[in-house]
Structures are given as C-alpha cells and as structure tokens.
Amino acid sequence: MSDPVASQTDAAGDAAPAADNVEYRVAHLRERLAAEELGELGVRTEVRAGAILVTGTVPSAQCRDTLLRVVHEELAGLTVHSDLVVAETTRPDHAEEL
To answer: Are 25 and 74 in contact (CB under 8 A)?
Structure first.
C-alpha cells in the first residue's frame, strides 16, 4: 500500500510542496542573516497562515533594503510580508519646540 501523503501531486503533476520545505527555507534564511555582514539577529521570521512574516528593527534604510533583498532571494516564490522599522540614529535637522 502506498503512502497517500507521499503520492500527492498538483495539477501540473509535480509533487505538492511540504510545509517542512517552507520551515527549512526559513531556517536557512535565519542562518544566512546571522552569518552575513548584516548580522541582524534582532529580525524575526515566522510562518503564519502560509505566508512568512519578517519583523524587527534595522539601523538604516539601506540595511532594510539589503535585508529584504536577501529575504526575497531565499524565499522566492513564497508570500512574504515585512514589518521592519528603521531606527533613525541621525541628528535632528531642527530644534525641538516645547
């Protein structure tokens, strides 16, 4: 008797992607982010309702753009939502009025 889960296919005849594959790809993304120059360990990635949610705070807009590029490279073909905050560390250009 064959395993019904192992024999599932989609309309194109390809094997249906397993949820484990998504978890594996997200884990690989986490490793890549930790190993690369970004080192953004404060950024979280979660699988929610079939999509990946990327949250956290980054130091600059350039860092955010680089991070999102890496995320889209690693998770190509998956739905990704991001909620990244850029922490502005530059000096204000005007005085605060009280």
So the answer is: yes
* Spatial CA neighbour of 57 closest among 72, 80, 70, 41: 41
Tokens of 81: 């939502």
Phi, psi of 74 (to 5 degrees): -75, -30
Q: Token pair of 51, please?
A: 């999509």
For residue 77, the domain's CATH number is: 3.30.1340.30
Domain that holds residue 65: 19-86
Q: How confident is the model at residue 95, as a pLDDT? A: 84
What stretches in the chain show pLDDT beneath 50? 1-16
* CB atoms closer than 10 angstroms to residue 45: 20
pTM: 0.66
Report whether 22 contacts 78 (CB < 8 A): yes
In a domain, 8, yes or no: no
